[in-house]
Amino acid sequence: MSIVMKSGEVARYSSGERVNHWVVAITFILLAVSGLAFFHPAFWFLTGLLGGGTWSRILHPFLGVLMFVCFALMAVRYWKENIVQSYDREWGKRLTDVINNRDDNLPEIDKYNLGQKQLFWVMVATMVLLLVTGVVLWQDVAWALPVTLVRISALIHAISAFVLMVGIIVHIYAAIFWVRGSLRAMTRGTVSHAWAEHHHPLWYRRVTGGGRK
Amino acid sequence: MTMQSLAVQQRSATTTTPPSVRVAAQPVAKLIDISKCIGCKACQVACMQWNDLRDEVGTQHGIYDNPVDLTDQSWTVMRFAEYRSPEGRIEWLIRKDGCMHCEDPGCLKACPAPGAIVKYANGIVDFNSANCIGCGYCIAGCPFNIPRISEKDKKAYKCSLCSDRVAVGLEPACVKTCPTGAIQFGAKTDMVTRGNKRVGDLKERGFQQAALYDPAGVGGTHVMYVLQHGDQPERYSGLPHDPSISPWVSLWKGVTKPLLSIGLGLAVLGAFFHYVTRGPKEEPGGRGDSH
């Protein structure tokens, strides 16, 4: 679990957790570009990234299985910390303050805020839906499934992927551009004391035993 | 394959106008008169011969259907159905199965690969295998369960209505070879006239429900059947009663496509403009400094 490292940093993710996250992230990007290419002709040029349309079709399902398995490991790691608590609901009621960067008005929260927790559960749901419907659509599996099931799966696959992609767009924006000081948690594994205390005070006190020593 | 000499009316996964300056194209149709078919399978042989196809020699399944289903190598298959009429008469309903060349083709609607499926101005729906990525969406889109993916190259195949022959003024190979004249080919208007005339003959001979099968749900087809029992097409080895593109496919390839694509664009723009108007939450400077 998280431990205090040097005086200037608080450990947030171990190297194993970081590798796990980035394997999911990389497979997600490859899946998104190939999936979008199959979804709308406006995105067809993205098939070039995976070596053409046929290669995209071949690789997409294998990447999908890899992403699902790696995400499942993350889900096992983090589900407990993503259970929505009463202070999260309070936090959620002040979404306007969150959006307008008025962080002083926000209640104290633990390792994840409500937005992060909601993204977590949205990912759990969409990953399961994408896997199940994706296997149905997988030509190499070539199961003789009822055609109506294939048709419904195609629609659910597209909508689930859309929901997941919107969630990830918000995730990428918040982690890289919006909430400064967050990205290093997933690159170097640590955040600053100030960042931890400001954004996740309950977590900060929990892992440091009350504050900076 | 795409025939340069044929005008293209629709092209899969394409949002611009396909090459379509040739305006004189006349819609064509193949008319299959089931009441004249003797089940000799010469059409199957002619199809294999013209298209350089050789299906594997299969096993006897105890029925006349051989092979028992369409394959990447068998673009047409005779389906034999025994039907006992209410009067107790046994009838052998032999239907030449294969692509119906829908005016509103579900395969083309579902196909994600630009130009892998085209519909010519003459109505022929053709697979351009060189552009096919092997996803199988055409199978999900088809209301007649026609396309088959090859195990060998993972490409989809089906009857081309001999678009290469038609492009140079020849009739399809199956039409050329049919010994009883059960398969005819020509302008769609002529074929409809001929079909209806034959339906009239059949009605005079006691087949009161005889009908021309040109289902409106898919905009009509460029392969039509004369059915003795037009009220019961499903008697003919499961010919759909009122085929249309599945609403699931229409949703998936209709409103969903532009709507979700715009949604993704708005999400990215929303994030960008949030940054521009609200700015980032700067990293707090130190302990106790909450800004």
CATH superfamily of chain A: Transmembrane di-heme cytochromes, Chain C
**Gap between N and C termini of chain A:** 18 Å
State the separation between the terminal residues of chain B, measured CA to CA. 65 Å
Return the domain count of chain A: 1
Number of helices of chain A: 9
Low-confidence stretches of chain B: 287-291
Q: In the CATH hierarchy, what is the class of chain A?
A: Mainly Alpha
Radius of gyration of chain B using CA atoms only: 25 Å
Report the helical percentage of chain A: 55-70%
Write down the overall geometry of chain B: elongated
What's the main sheet of chain B like?
Answer: 4 strands, mixed
Number of strands of chain B: 11
The biggest beta sheet of chain A, please? 2 strands, antiparallel
Q: What can you tell me about this protein's structure?
A:
Chain A is mainly α. Chain A has one domain: Transmembrane di-heme cytochromes, Chain C (Fumarate Reductase Cytochrome B subunit). The longest helix of chain A is centred in the C-terminal third of the chain and has 32 residues. The radius of gyration of chain A is 20 Å and the shape is elongated. Helix content of chain A is 66%, strand content 3%. The model of chain A has no long low-confidence stretch (mean pLDDT 92). In chain A, strands 1-2 form a two-stranded antiparallel sheet. Chain B is an alpha+beta fold and 291 residues long. Chain B has one domain: Alpha-Beta Plaits. Helices cover 26% and strands 17% of the residues of chain B. Chain B is built from eight helices and eleven strands. In chain B, the strands form four sheets. In chain B, strands 9-2-11-10 form a four-stranded mixed β-sheet. A three-stranded antiparallel β-sheet of chain B has the order 1-5-6, with no helix packed on it. Chain B has a two-stranded antiparallel ribbon with strand order 3-4. Chains A and B meet through helix 1, helix 2, helix 6 and helix 8 of A and helix 3, helix 7 and helix 8 of B.
